[in-house]
Amino acid sequence: MQENFSPIKTPIALTIAGSDSGGGAGLQADLKTFSANNVYGASVVTAVTAQNTVAVAVVHEIPADIVAAQIKAVLDDLDVDAVKIGMLFSREIISSVAKALNDCEIPIVLDPVMIAKSGDALLQETAVSALRSLLLPHVDLLTPNLPEAARLLDVKEASSVNEMEVQAHALLALGPKAVLIKGGHGTEMTCSDILLCHNKPIMQLDAPRQNTNNTHGTGCTYSAAIAAELAKGNSMETSVQNAHTYLQNAIINADQLNIGSGHGPVHHFHNLWSD
């Protein structure tokens, strides 16, 4: 006689992001990151980009109602444990995502994607204010890089850890429960990230800056790894620390890959692929 048993809950993370046809960033990077960190990935497409390691040639925006329908379809059936939001592109899509997640009680990580590694715009200028007002007050973690943090605050880019801390406090005042400012765009030999949570001391994460051109998708990968860790039930601090370690190893091993002629991707499966 077969015994009845309940299978262990499979952690699930949902990415709401743009598609990168080159596979190094966007929802492709997110899904790879989820899988590499033992989390099942679901996806909602907000935009389709014709993109490679050199440039973003074309951006095709997905209609806002289709974005909302994708979110509803996933949340109606899958027991999602965390949401990662990436490229949203327009005010209309931002509004649609905000409404669709309005009653969502699961952790939400927002990576405010604005500019691709190639320098191409991935968020319309008119959408920045909508990002501030409609999404920032409802997310558990905001993960801007140095240029994105400055743009959200309409100030100059931070050039020191102290300035990053000041901007982290200013961003926290806009409503997110926590802010992670990433220092990858800095110039120091040590790359420093700043995590600020409400009513907790600042946490600084340092790593040696790696000499590699293959850093496409680092922001997407970092935020997706944090979402994966949150989906597994870890605290915010543990999730960020584990994701930071994962990303650093993905960057260290990036040159094992030979992808494209521009900024190649990080190695999402560095711990799984053999030489």
Oligomer state of the chains in this structure: single chain
- Uncertain spans, ≥5 residues at pLDDT below 50? none
Quick one: biggest sheet? 6 strands, mixed
DSSP helix count? 8
Strand order of the largest sheet: 3-2-1-4-5-6
Query: Structural class from helices and strands?
Result: alpha/beta
Which architecture name does CATH use? Answer: 3-Layer(aba) Sandwich
Q: What is Rg? A: 18 Å
Q: In which range does the helix fraction lie?
A: 25-40%
**Overall domain count:** 1
Shape: globular
Distance between the termini: 46 Å
CATH class: Alpha Beta
Mean pLDDT: 93
Which topology does CATH recognise? UDP-N-acetylmuramoyl-L-alanine:D-glutamate ligase
Percent of residues in beta strands? 15-25%
CATH superfamily: Ribokinase
> What is the succession of H and E elements?
EHEEHEHEHEHHEEEHH
How many E strands?
Answer: 9
What do these coordinates show?
- The protein has a single domain (12-256), classed as Ribokinase (UDP-N-acetylmuramoyl-L-alanine:D-glutamate ligase).
- The protein is 34% helix and 20% strand.
- The chain contains eight helices and nine strands.
- A six-stranded mixed beta sheet has the order 3-2-1-4-5-6.
- Helix 1 (26-36) packs across helix 7 and helix 7 packs across helix 8.
- The mean pLDDT is 93.
Topology, element by element:
Blueprint: E1 12-20, H1 26-36, E2 40-51, E3 56-61, H2 64-77, E4 82-85, H3 91-100, E5 108-110, H4 128-135, E6 141-142, H5 146-153, H6 161-172, E7 178-181, E8 190-197, E9 203-208, H7 218-231, H8 236-252
Helix pairs in contact: 1-7, 2-3, 3-4, 5-6, 7-8
